[in-house]
Write a sequence for this structure.
């Protein structure tokens, strides 16, 4: 097991060890920015935004197709109505 090196939480100034995921004083700031819960949440939020953008594009494509179909249906209805 590697030797643990102490670190200071950037959020509350509490102590901890490199590799800890949570500061034992504030429970969330993280002992190091690269291992804190907040960074994990930020990564998940970025992934969620990426997926939302992807889904918005798919919805827009489907709406365009739906509008095209509705236009064709209206054209057919007008021809039949005459």
């Amino acid at each position: 097991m590697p030797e643990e090196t102490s670190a200071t939480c950037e959020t509350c100034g509490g102590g901890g060890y490199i590799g800890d995921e949570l500061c034992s004083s504030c429970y969330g700031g993280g002992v190091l920015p690269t291992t804190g819960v907040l960074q994990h949440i930020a990564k998940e939020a970025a992934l969620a935004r990426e997926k939302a953008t992807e889904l918005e594009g798919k919805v827009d494509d489907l709406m365009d197709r739906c509008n095209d179909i509705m236009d064709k249906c209206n054209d057919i209805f007008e021809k039949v109505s005459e």
